[in-house]
Design a protein that fits this description.
Length: 633
């Protein structure tokens, strides 16, 4: 069985097991990390929402301990990882997460940093790196810099603390106005970022201005005037054509000086971005991309930058498949930042679609021509929920006809996935859809916004929320927490909700009891863990901030927590409050709640009855899980 490995130029061990499928896939990002007894718990390369969500597999689970996990580098393994995971590395040395439950035959990895304290030459170095040669004096090479990042990731299992820091290296390039571009995974959870120019021996401190997780791009700034002396920023070029020559420049594994590799453009299509949660346009090339290349530019023959190197695909059946973020995605990122003063992200339509390749299916839906995609589900939090209905057939998007395979015309003689058109829009933009409803054609307008994830791929602000009540530790379910805990300890019910449930309203979270800090006040509950709490004193819980508010306002004699499967945990309120400070001291925890929960609670939903039915539980059917004709847009 072929094992597919995709790197994101960040060297990290990672593996993913496809949910409900027999083939194991690996994803990698392209940076290279150096660590000294560092805890290398996953920097997650997340797949998109349509067909490729994956969860890492863990062969065993170890008991939780109240100290920072350590990774003995000499053993070249990550804590809690399976044997499969050891074969998959970020190019910057950070462990990545994959996707689950998607019928997809490819695996990607992002590279960007290389570990300095271990020999990484066992990675696949079959590709030949080209010496700069006649490019030696090219001025555009001087715009490519090396990135040194110190990462301090949160500990999602023990959310009041962080993991041990580690370092990584990657690449970046100058774009003018005192700014640099690199990959988001190169500077994820950064505590310090430094950059060094070619031929210089001085490292300069850089600041992260914006980080686009979904498109894997980050914008950096360097204040030092000395750093910019004599610098010439790169020019962004147009989307290349097939077979166009391409040159990848960066600071990958194998040395400290700049490296140049050459190839051609092999394919341009909508690609799964390993680090983010989106499917965006990507350029496939055959030039070598190795750990440390992440964030480095790819040039055309005119010396124009045509994209950013960020991930590769490796398997026993394929070679020389690297991926570049095209300048169309880069320009969207920069325009978004300039418009809003921050990065807001790519929008979505908020529907689950089915292809209409079958003639009988089209006839049943009164679609006269070979076109259109069927609306199977509409996300409750999207604007489309007010406009579209299940059973509608989308036949055009801004007057561009949508084919029955879910594709639209692209350039002169190509077709591309329908969601490419959506990715050209910005959050808040309006799209005009041509639809067929009950045999009647009509046009409707839909506002495009960012997708609301019930279980987020990345935590805004970096540190997860938590609430400790008499030793009961509550936290929102997130993909990083699932990655850290492993699927065996999370349980199938929570996994199914994480993969296939939709948020009913903005701000909704799945709040779980992650563990119980043993004390006489909570005796009998010590073995509880990773269970969703549904109600507190009979009131349904909307999110962890809502739970903290309910507990703070409670005047009842008992604190009653209702969990899945009608499991109850009851505490005497005064005894619980009296024991809380002692429990925090015994376990060395600085506060009973995270800083974000100190803010006043605002009930955005208002009517609690609106969520009584099917609260937080709208799983996709088995058909939707396994049927390739379905796609998110």
């Amino acid at each position: 069985m072929a094992i597919a490995v995709a790197h994101c130029c960040f060297s990290v061990l990672s593996s993913t097991v496809k949910f409900r499928y027999s083939v194991s896939y690996h994803r990698r990002l392209a940076t290279s990390t150096s660590t000294s007894q560092a805890s290398l718990d996953a920097l997650s390369p997340k797949a998109t929402n349509d067909k490729k969500r994956a969860l890492k597999s863990c062969s065993s689970t170890s008991p939780r301990k109240f100290n920072v996990k350590k990774d003995p580098v000499s053993q070249k393994k990550l804590p809690g990882r399976s044997k499969d995971e050891k074969s998959s590395l970020y190019a910057d040395g950070i462990s990545g997460r994959g996707d689950m439950g998607r019928p997809q035959s490819t695996g990607f990895k992002s590279f960007g940093t290389q570990r300095k304290d271990r020999e990484e030459f066992q990675l696949d170095l079959r590709e030949q790196q080209v010496e700069p040669g006649n490019l030696q004096d090219a001025t555009f090479l001087n715009a490519v810099v090396k990135v040194y990042c110190t990462h301090t990731a949160p500990d999602y299992s023990l959310p009041w603390q962080k993991q041990r820091q580690f370092t990584s290296t990657g690449s970046a390039f100058m774009i003018g106005d005192g700014k640099l571009l690199t990959n988001a995974h190169c500077v994820e959870h950064d505590t310090q970022v430094k950059v060094k120019r070619r031929g210089d021996d001085t490292k300069y401190v850089a600041k992260v201005l914006a980080r686009g997780v979904d498109c894997d791009i980050a914008l950096l700034s360097v204040e030092s005037k000395e750093f910019w002396r004599g610098a010439e920023p790169l020019r962004l070029g147009h989307l290349p054509g097939l077979q166009d020559a391409v040159t990848v420049v960066g600071y990958p594994l194998g040395g400290d000086t700049i490296s140049v590799t050459k190839g051609v453009v092999s394919r341009i299509e909508v690609t799964s971005y390993a680090h983010g949660s989106s499917d965006l346009l990507g350029i496939q090339i055959d030039a070598a991309i190795n750990p440390g290349n992440s964030g480095g530019p790819a040039f055309n023959e005119q010396g124009e930058c045509i994209g950013v190197a960020f991930q590769v695909y490796r398997s026993e059946e394929a070679e020389n498949i690297g991926y570049v973020i095209p300048t169309t995605v880069v320009s969207h990122f920069l325009s978004d930042y300039e418009r809003n003063g921050k990065y807001t992200g790519f929008p979505c339509l908020g529907v689950l679609l089915q292809k209409l390749e079958n003639p009988a299916l089209r006839a049943c839906l009164h679609v006269q021509s070979n076109e259109g995609v069927l609306v199977r589900r509409v996300e409750p939090t999207s604007d489309a929920n007010n406009v579209l209905k299940e059973g509608d057939v989308i036949v055009s998007f801004d007057d561009v006809h949508v084919g029955s395979e879910g594709t639209v015309p692209f350039r002169s003689n190509e077709r591309i996935a329908f969601r490419y058109l959506i990715s050209q829009k910005f959050a808040g933009d309006v799209a005009e859809l041509g639809i067929v409803r009950a045999g009647r054609f009509m046009k409707v307008q839909v506002v495009l916004n960012r997708r609301v994830h019930l279980v987020p791929y990345h935590i805004d602000g970096g540190q997860p929320s938590y609430l400790i009540i008499a030793g009961l530790v509550f936290t929102p379910l997130s993909e990083p927490l699932i990655e850290e805990e492993c699927e065996d300890s999370i349980g199938l019910k929570l996994l199914a909700k994480a993969r296939y449930s939709l948020a009913r309203f903005k701000g909704e979270q799945i709040v779980i009891l992650s563990q119980v800090l043993a004390n006489e006040v909570n005796i009998g509950y010590e073995d509880m863990g990773n269970q969703q709490v549904l109600k507190f004193n009979g009131i349904r819980i909307k999110n962890i901030h809502h739970l903290a508010h309910l507990v703070a306002c409670c005047k009842d004699k008992y604190l009653v927590f209702e969990f899945e499967d009608n499991y109850l945990a009851v505490l005497e309120r005064e005894a619980a409050m009296a024991a809380s400070s002692r429990i925090l001291k015994d376990y060395g925890i600085p506060s009973e709640k995270s800083d974000d929960l100190l803010e006043p609670y605002v009930d955005s939903l208002g009517d609690n009855q609106a969520i009584e039915q099917d609260y937080g539980d709208s799983p996709v059917s088995n058909l939707e899980i396994g049927f390739e004709g379905l796609l998110w847009a």
